[in-house]
Design brief:
This protein is an all-alpha fold and 138 residues long. The protein is 75% helix and 0% strand. It contains 5 helices and no strands. Helix 3 runs antiparallel to helix 4. The relative contact order is 0.12. The mean pLDDT is 83.
Amino acid sequence: MSNYIKPLLTLSFWFKTVGEPFLPVFYYALLAFFTLLFLAGILSGIVFKAKKEFFILRFAVKYLKGWFLWAGATGYLWIFFTYERAVFLSSRFWILVWLLSFGLWLVFIIKKIRQLPGKEKESQQKAQFDKYIPKKKK
């Protein structure tokens, strides 16, 4: 097992310009992972349109939908370049860039989702207040 992990700890593994092809197990595992991300994005879009009465769930999936779709699509792109053995675009450091960029994006999404209960309460209070305000005549 350590023979598989030892290369992960070396800089030469991550920063070679020519990426070596995946073992079939890793290829299918990454393909399944990026497929799940992409399908989660599609499912998020469906939930966003269907669950109009659940404020927090609706806007949480609204924020996550783009993340899931972009993460899955860019993952597919990287797997494609690795499969085609493109010299620079199949490098392993792109997975580090992917992890860093999408991880940072996910942190900002989680911060937004944590603010949703307060926004829901504000929205309910505003709706309660607005029902007593006269409407404009057309």
